[in-house]
Specification:
- The chain is of the alpha/beta class.
- It has a single domain, classed as CBS-domain (Roll).
- It contains six helices and seven strands; from the N terminus they run H-E-E-H-E-E-H-E-H-E-E-H-H.
- The chain is globular and about 45 Å long.
- The relative contact order is 0.21.
Length: about 140
């Protein structure tokens, strides 16, 4: 069976908890991504920041993205997947938590990110369809 390590995008870059949301947006643009893991000064994962978070929670709330810190948008413990977890486990985790991206952890180290598209390519068509349906409903 296919593992997270085999389908993930490696070299995932973090945004620091003390960096501004504006810096996060610039980093997302330069990397061509819609989400960044939020990492603490201890290099541990604190959460995920998405482009939607920036629009809804910062811009939509009338806040200045240059003064809001990425760490202010980290919500609870981040949902992750182990590097050696199989595609079925990734599917279950994404479905259960209704997330489209999962940071991939090897021990305590962030080694990559698995996106919905990665999983859809790795799973047989019926399972990929079930995942898309589960994530697209409220």
């Amino acid at each position: 069976m296919t593992t997270a390590r085999e389908i993930m995008t490696s070299g995932t870059e973090c945004i620091g908890v003390d960096e501004s949301v504006l810096e996060a947006a610039k980093k997302m643009k330069s990397l061509g991504v819609g989400a960044l893991p939020i990492c603490g000064t201890d290099n541990k994962l604190k959460g995920m920041l998405t482009d939607r978070d920036i629009v809804v929670k910062v811009l939509g709330a009338g806040q200045d993205p240059s003064t809001v810190k990425a760490g202010e948008l980290a919500q609870g413990e981040a949902v992750t997947i182990g590097a050696d977890d199989e595609a079925d486990e990734i599917l279950r985790t994404m479905t259960q938590h209704k997330v489209r991206r999962l940071p991939v952890i090897d021990g305590h180290e962030l080694v990559g990110t698995v996106a919905l598209a990665d999983v859809a390519r790795a799973l047989p068509n019926p399972q990929a369809g079930d995942l898309l349906e589960a994530l697209s409903t409220d």
